[in-house]
Amino acid sequence: MTARYITTTLPYVNAGAHIGFAVEILQADVLARLWRLQGDQVFFNTGTDEHGQKIFEAAEKAGEDVQKYVDTYAASFQKLKDTLDISNDAFIRTTDENHVKAAQELWKRCDASGDIEKKKFKGLYCVGCEKFLTERDLVDGKCPLHPDREPEEREEENYFFKFSKYESYLLEYLEKDVIVPEHRLEEARQFVKNGLEDFSISREKEKMSWGVPVPGDDSQVMYVWFDALTNYISTLGWPEHTEGNFKKFWVNGETLQIAGKDQVRFQSLMWQAMLKSAGLPATKKIFYHGFITSEGKKMSKSLGNVIGPNELVERYQTDATRYLLLRHVHPFDDTDITWERLDEWYEAHLVNGLGNLVARVMKLAETHITESIDDQNISGIYPDEIIRPMQSFRFDETLNFIWSFIQKVDQNITEKEPFKVIKEDESKGTQIISDLMNDIHLIAHFIEPFMPEASEKIKKAIKGNKKPENLFPRLEK
Q: Are 438 and 385 in contact (CB under 8 A)?
């Protein structure tokens, strides 16, 4: 039995959940469910990032008290647990008292290592990224991630983390197969080889008061990334309870962080340097996923092409939404999504595929089988065709295998024609139907981490020897 820790990033609460984060939290959920089914002990963390200038400005624009503002949005992210059927063990908010204490303790430890110094700095600042930009960050004089926002020229006296001190350490860390996919690992290596610059880890409280107070200096608050990254260990009870979950899952366990492809610098470099400075173990593996676009364009409210998780669930229900995002969104590369494609996949693979197969088999069973089949003791046992791609975070390949098996079972019905055979040879026909029931029981087992509700409905139908209600209703035209 292995102790496994898995965490998503913490989304900013300056807007509601988007489809990209829905994919990320679903990827984490499937892994957590699969590991639990295999007998591992799992700690699955997610939460919300609630400090920083973007949030402060969004609250001001909305005319709300900033704490009340983040409370409202945090609640909307917590609802994803029910909306998407997420099995997380913890939901941490960076405004939680225990997290604030942990961020301050991490600061003190980095300071004790001689890695924090106060100095004046002048440069271009991107409010969207909440960071100062270097020359190599700029594209046509702007931040490539926020080209609609002009970088602000700022001069401040802030605390800086001695990032440059950790070049050799990070290159050594990156030799340990710690990043998936490979091209993100190479991206991280290249960034370090190009030279690291010390980065600002505080802001003047007079200009931006919404943040964690810097220990020993009331005039400064922590830079949001220094604060937020600490959540990965504060959620485990660090630093007060180092012998409990922190030791079990972070020190002795297998640690995995999941993040978007724009997070490589923060998750694999800055955070790892901060951990080293504080004398804490590094993350063992980080998996980076791609972005979701619509008709070749990045989703944005101004373009009117945003698709949210709530909209997906409203149209397709929870399990179907999980399937669509896990099979048809590429784990590593960008994926283009439209309502037309989603509808097509839903109808072809779920309504006419899995849903129709279960209905056909269980109608035959309900009509011709007098006793339900013996429950197969296969809990936790999965073939290599499922385990191998999951170890490489290829959720799509795993589901491709499962759906190829569904097609094979469907083909068996066509070729063996049990509905005809049962009339001519009851014993032979009954055996064919029983075999088909065993097949869909196996399918229910295979899909359990991906589609837990559908899996349970299929198993219940088999046990009761009764055709279930339509698993996936046809869409209204």
A: no
